[in-house]
Amino acid sequence: MLPTTIRSPPAEADYTPLAEYQSQTPESFTDGKPILHYHLAGAKATLPRSQCGSLAVFPQDTAAAPNDSNDGEAAEELVEQTVDVFATSENFIIFSHQAEAGVSIPYPSISIHALKSVDSSQAVWMQLDLADGGVDDSDFQTVELTIIPPSSSEANSAQQLYEAMANCSDLHPDPENEEDDDNEYDRIVFEGNAGHEAIEGFTGVLRGVTDGGLPPPMPGSGGWITADNVHEYFDADGNWIGGEEEEEEAEELGEGAGRTRPRDELEKGDDVNGHDSAEDPESKRPRVDNGDDA
């Protein structure tokens, strides 16, 4: 997302003022004009001379800015242009009528912006990333641009411009950060030791088996529970239903295992525990009739 050169000056009528936008409910949040968060006319933009030619607003023959600095070390020579500034919901725009050119800057290209003191007044300094390949690109290039409000503007105009840029930047998050968030969790993680012995001195580290392998994360799972096999261990309501090993163990016990037999199924001659009294005489108990003498 690189800055784009424009040749026609933008106009305030091309945008919906922020105050107007906030005062009513729009018919659509996706259609309509971009929102103008802040407009500054007649501002002064400065750039190091070594960076001239990187933006259409500053051609190679741009006039140098007067240097009133009394610093012992010679500062890098700056060039300047008078520009109109538009902080919109889509892009950050500066246009120079003198250069008959402007630049529309996507907010992700503004890597840093901050308030800066220039000649006893506040200005907005920013660093632009003009490379489209990230920090590892061999053509990595940055530009340092400073916007100084005119003396006729409001006393806190630099602060207002800075806040408008910050608010608009929040509307355009870095695509690389979005991808990192999407891939933050690539498997299901269960807390606890799942029946395995924890290693003393470590949190969440379990002791493996004798062959050096890792213990399964849940009893009977036999391996990691991922999005591909989670249905084998949990039902739609999140209840544990076990894995194949538990099902195999149930089949090996045979039909009727764990089943309680009702009394009417007991054969005649069986005691309440299901034993055949004829085969097990010791299980018989003498019958005692009420009222009989001992």
The main pleated sheet reads as:
9 strands, mixed
What separation lies between the terminal Cα atoms? 106 Å
What does the overall shape look like? Answer: elongated
CATH topology tier name of the domain at 4-171: PH-domain like
> Residue-averaged pLDDT, rounded?
74
SSE class: alpha+beta
Strand count: 9
Low-confidence stretches: 184-195
Task: Provide the descriptors you would attach to this structure in a database record.
294 residues, ICln/Lot5/Saf5, elongated, nine-stranded mixed sheet, nucleus, cytoplasm, PH-like_dom_sf, alpha+beta, Benzoylformate decarboxylase, PH-domain like
Topology:
Layout lengths: L3 E3 L9 E2 H6 L11 E14 L29 E11 L3 E5 L4 E5 L4 E9 L2 E9 L12 E7 L8 H14 L4 H8 L61 H9 L42
Parallel strand pairs: 2-3
Antiparallel strand pairs: 1-6, 3-4, 3-9, 4-5, 5-6, 7-8, 8-9
Descriptive account of the structure:
Strands 1, 2, 3, 4, 5, 6, 7, 8 and 9 form a nine-stranded mixed sheet that branches. The chain has a domain at about 5-170: Roll (PH-domain like). The protein has about 290 residues and is of the alpha+beta class. Strand 2, helix 1 (about 20-25) and strand 3 (about 35-50) form a beta-alpha-beta unit. The protein has four helices and nine strands; from the N terminus they run E-E-H-E-E-E-E-E-E-E-H-H-H.
In short:
The protein has 294 residues and is of the alpha+beta class. The protein contains four helices and nine strands. The longest helix has 14 residues, at 157-170.
